[in-house]
Amino acid sequence: MITTSNLSKKYSGNQVLNIEALEIPKGQSFGLVGNNGAGKTTYFSLLLDLIQPTTGHIESHGVQVNKSEDWKPFTSAFIDESFLIGYLTPEEYFYFIGELRGQNKADVDSLVSQFEDFFHGEILGQKKYLRDLSKGNQKKAGIVAALIGNPEVIILDEPFANLDPTTQIRLKNIIKELAEKQGITVLISSHDLMHVTDVCERIVVLEKGEVVKDLATSAATLKELEAHFAN
Amino acid sequence: MIKRFLSLEWKAFFRSASFGKSLGIKIFMGFLSLYFIAMFLGMGVLLFPGLKKVYPDQDPLLIVNSFLFFWIIADLVLRFFFQKLPVMSVKPLLTLPVKRSKVVNYVLGKSAVSFFNFLPLFAIIPFGITLITKDYPVTNVLVWMLALIIVVLIINFLNFIIESFSAEKELSFLPIILVAGGLYALNHFDIISFNNIIGSAFNAIYHSPFLIVVPLLILVVCYIINFKLLRQKLFLDSGLKTIIKEVNTSNLEWTKNFGDIAPFMQLDLKLIWRNKRTKSSVWMVAIGLLYGLFFYPQPIYQNLEWFFVFIGVFSTGIFLINFGQFIPAWDSGYYKLLMSQNIKYEQYLKSKFTLMAVSVLILFVLGIPYVFFGWKILLAHFAAAVYNIGVNTHVILLGGSFNRKKIDLSKKAAFNYQGTGAVQWLIGIPLLLLPMGLFAAFHFLIGFEIACLVLVILGVVGIVFHQKLMKTITQKYLDSKYKMIDAFNQNN
To answer: Is the pLDDT of residue B38 over 80?
Structure first.
């Protein structure tokens, strides 16, 4: 359960996020949509305690994220390329994240091997540093690294952007499988309404930092979202 | 078009994220340039009367000409280290209707108005005027001055040619040092007397002004080579098509001996070995280690006992200083990841501490042969090493919590000042001056052995309170977490 209360973020008087209350139950697959500057990345950064809230707070599984660091063991995220360590190979990066999350090499290997399809033979065994991979391949490595160590809260910012169509479809399957597992809360943001309605049980629309729509996904959701953004 | 380029750069300068922050450095550079201008001006004015006084029966102009070779070599080496081709972000321009040749000409033209090219004028012009007032033929002197200015520009463009061939490599400064050193040696041992050749060339230009075509031609050739080199770089694929080397992953299992800091130790070792800039700090270790050889063989330093400590702190702490001053900026590229991961900050810092402490130990052991110059040196180095481990490691880690400057690891290594701020200057005071001052004071008041003992005691106290100190330091880092994330997120 992730509880947001009275959360706001201002940059020099400019309000970029203002969420009075938002509850995300444990195990939900949660989609955040909104135009550029709507506050999606700001919300995720607050959730990861990378920036300080101006007012209010977020509690994740009962832990107030800007007060205690106890949310870290069960949370993982991939926000952007700055979550990658450029001078490591993908394998080394996975092992490093694994070690931080208490997984040994065998654990990591067995998890990563499930994603061979997703990697499309372009990540593992390439003998290349992450900094030398293409943007899309970097993203694949980052997303998979966020799945290491049995996290209960997974945060992915724009996971579909920069990926080729095949990989997008595979990623959708991965996220769906995660959501089916009990107790894993997946939070993703996306500009792609189709993908996000496909994989998320619930979609929240942000506009200028405020929640303007909160929908349980149904057959009509995509149409409703398209109508909303068309205006 | 040139007007547009200039306005783009004007905006880039004033709107850069670090504009206010780097103002201090710019003011410092301003004073430095004023100092150099004054020096050159003084040289230009006083050169003629000075030479006349020392060598009354020789023509000062001929003497100056015979020394031009050394100036050329020195200028070339200095420029290699300090002058960079003006950078311009050309990517956005490539798809716009701007001729590539125009961009290249602009960049090269801009390099010609560099401070390095103006500086010699402050010496050349007053010297030339003095010559004219002393009844040297006006046209010949003017042509001679012009020839010198052309040479300045040749050096300017030659430097960029050399740089474009040796940049992007580790130890890129070795070739230029070797070539300059080689030329100097050939000249010094009279194998080929370059200063005579260059000297008589300038004498010839002075006597028959039409010979100015020769340097002019050389200049044109240099410009054309530069033009071609730069034009090639103006295609995106030359930037994209970097050769990707196959990676040798090394197994760093032995770090497991360090317990829970092992993952960070492995990361740090890879950080150091796989990035140009960090790798060059390893090479600096060699220089630091041999630093003592500049001083100890000379008899003057044999009795300057307080000076041993400076060498000791420096030569055992060179890695500590080089690597430590940019903690945690080395990790700025992925700082957000570290901050959102399940890590203990203390382990992260402890890994850095361990690396630095081990480096001090190794450097001390490697420096033991200095005992050849006297046992006092070894004792001073030992005291300095203990002080480095116990005090300086903590000081530099503490200083790191004030670091707010990002380091882009992919950038070149030598003489890269990215990430350098006031912290890096200020940290030198407790790091080097404090132990020296303490040592000197106790040495003066009581004696050499006691002074060494004081440093050792301070070091041991630091080691004893290591856990406590690390707690305080960790808290400092935690307190500035948001500021660091924000700062490392910004470009420039």
So the answer is: yes
User: Is A111 a member of any domain?
Assistant: no
Helices (H) and strands (E) in chain A, counts: 8, 10
- % of chain A residues with pLDDT over 70: 100
Say if B267 is an interface residue toward chain A (CB within 8 Å): yes
- Position A158 in a domain: yes
The verdict on A73 touching B (C-beta cutoff 8 Å) is: yes
The average pLDDT across B177-205 equals 84
Mean pLDDT of A190-204: 91
**Using the beta-carbon criterion (under 8 Å), do A87 and B339 form an inter-chain contact?**
no
Select from A48, A87, A127 the residue whose CB has the most chain B CBs within 10 Å, as the one to mutate to test that interface: A87
CB contact under 8 A, A82 and B244: no
Is there a contact between B337 and A149 if contact means CB atoms under 8 Å apart? no
What residues make up the domain containing A38?
2-84+152-230
Q: Does B243 lie at the interface with A, CB-CB under 8 angstroms?
A: no
Write the CATH number for A68.
Answer: 3.40.50.300
pTM of the model: 0.74
- Residue B438 in contact with partner chain A when CB distance is under 8 A: no
State pLDDT tens for residues A61-91. Answer: 999 998 888 898 899 999 988 899 988 999 9
- Domain-embedded: residue A171: yes
- Would you call A83 and B334 a contact, using CB atoms and an 8 Å cutoff? yes
B41 CB within 8 Å of a chain A CB: no
Residue B343 forms contact with A (CB below 8 Å): yes
Asked whether residue A116 is assigned to any structural domain, the reply reads no
User: Which chain B residues contact residue A125 at CB under 8 A?
Assistant: none
Return mean pLDDT, chain A.
90
A50/B336 CB distance under 8 A: yes
Q: What integer is the mean pLDDT of B180-207?
A: 84
Residues of chain B found within 8 Å of residue A82, distances taken between Cβ atoms: 333-337, 489
| Number of separate domains in chain A | 1
Per-residue pLDDT reduced to its tens digit, B197-240: 888 888 888 888 888 888 899 999 999 998 888 887 776 555 44
Does the distance separating the beta carbons of B267 and A85 come in below 8 Å? yes
ipTM greater than cut 0.90:
no
